[in-house]
């Protein structure tokens, strides 16, 4: 029988599944291309786009995701996006 996962374990599994769902449509399963990142953000984080004051902010934000400047976003860089957004949201609700 499968063990029941905790909420945090489910959240981690969801992060992995979401990354894997969008990575690889361009053939490389270990990273997200710029187009894949854009699609992921549009579909999975629509509030981020709506909350941005202008589209240039979103482009700059996405460009800054690519920490090693290889024009791709790997899983570690993707997780950093989620961490930054989660901290920002947490701060907004805890004031």
UniProtKB/TrEMBL annotation:
Listed Gene3D superfamilies: EF-hand
EF-hand domain span: 53-88
GO biological process: one example: endothelial cell migration
One Gene Ontology cellular component annotation held by this UniProt entry: cytoplasm
InterPro entries: EF-hand-dom_pair, EF_hand_dom, S-100_dom, S100/CaBP7/8-like_CS, S100_Ca-bd_sub
CDD domains hit by this protein: S-100
Molecular function terms, GO-annotated: calcium ion binding; calcium-dependent protein binding; transition metal ion binding
UniProt keyword ATP-binding present: no
Domain of life the protein comes from: Eukaryota
Pfam family, one: S_100
PROSITE patterns, per database record: EF_HAND_2 (PS50222), S100_CABP (PS00303)
Keywords in alphabetical order: Calcium, Metal-binding, Repeat
PANTHER family: PROTEIN S100-A1-RELATED, S100 CALCIUM-BINDING PROTEIN
Protein name from the UniProt record: S100 calcium binding protein P
């Amino acid at each position: 029988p499968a063990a029941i996962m905790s909420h945090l374990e489910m959240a981690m599994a969801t992060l992995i599944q979401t990354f894997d769902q969008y990575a690889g449509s361009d053939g490389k399963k270990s990273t997200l291309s710029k187009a894949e990142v854009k699609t992921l953000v549009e579909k999975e984080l629509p509030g981020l786009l709506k909350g941005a004051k202008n589209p240039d902010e979103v482009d700059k934000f996405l460009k800054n995701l690519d920490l090693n400047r290889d024009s791709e976003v790997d899983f570690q860089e993707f997780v950093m996006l989620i961490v930054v957004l989660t901290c920002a949201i947490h701060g907004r609700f805890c004031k």
